[in-house]
């Protein structure tokens, strides 16, 4: 049984859907960045860093699971997948930026610069994610190197598994939303 291909969207409809997708992703990213800069991360002394990071990664896993379901359910799953990726990657990066910021606040010896600002932490996180190497900021303690190594491994997972999950969800969504042929 042949299933007819999905009809292409008219240009104006596609542009509107992509525009809405990009607007939502941008708004979500702006809210996440504002939260990163405004939350009182300097006052979390006594909170287990490992537990906080694990909770953040669990929340991120929940976000990814939600995004996969949303992609499958959306009539235009590929457009929704772009939005999902545009939300998930900044959330992932900001989680690690916050982790590095809190690490440095608990012990300034974790990094070579003495005092990481939130912007320094975000810069360092993006440097690790982009695999462009280090220069001005490096992890100096064993604990910081372990967290950086964990981020590097998780970067590969985000780029590999999460993108694969989103692409699989696009295919599932396309299958679910294809027009069905009437039985003859």
Automatic annotation (TrEMBL):
InterPro entries: K_chnl_dom (IPR013099). Keywords: Ion channel, Ion transport, Membrane, Transmembrane, Transmembrane helix, Transport. The chain crosses the membrane at residues 21-39, 45-66, 78-102, 122-139. Residues 92-167 form the Potassium channel domain. It holds the Pfam family Ion_trans_2. One of its GO terms (biological process) is monoatomic ion transmembrane transport. This is Potassium channel family protein. It comes from Pseudonocardia adelaidensis. The lineage of its organism: Bacteria, Bacillati, Actinomycetota, Actinomycetes, Pseudonocardiales.
């Amino acid at each position: 049984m042949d299933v007819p291909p999905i009809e292409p969207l008219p240009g104006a409809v596609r542009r509107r859907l992509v525009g809405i997708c990009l607007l939502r992703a941008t708004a979500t990213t702006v809210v996440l960045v504002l939260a990163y800069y405004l939350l009182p991360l300097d006052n979390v002394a006594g909170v287990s860093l490992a537990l906080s990071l694990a909770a953040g990664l669990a929340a991120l896993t929940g976000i990814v699971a939600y995004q996969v379901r949303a992609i499958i359910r959306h009539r235009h799953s590929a457009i929704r997948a772009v939005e999902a990726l545009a939300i998930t990657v900044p959330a992932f990066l900001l989680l690690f930026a916050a982790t590095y910021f809190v690490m440095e606040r608990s012990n300034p010896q974790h990094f070579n610069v003495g005092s990481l600002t939130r912007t320094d932490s975000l810069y360092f996180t993006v440097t690790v994610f982009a695999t462009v190497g280090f220069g001005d900021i490096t992890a100096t303690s064993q604990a910081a190197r372990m967290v950086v190594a964990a981020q590097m491994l998780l970067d590969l997972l985000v780029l590999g598994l999460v993108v694969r999950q989103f692409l699989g969800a696009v295919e599932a969504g396309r299958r679910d939303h294809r027009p069905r042929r009437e039985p003859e």
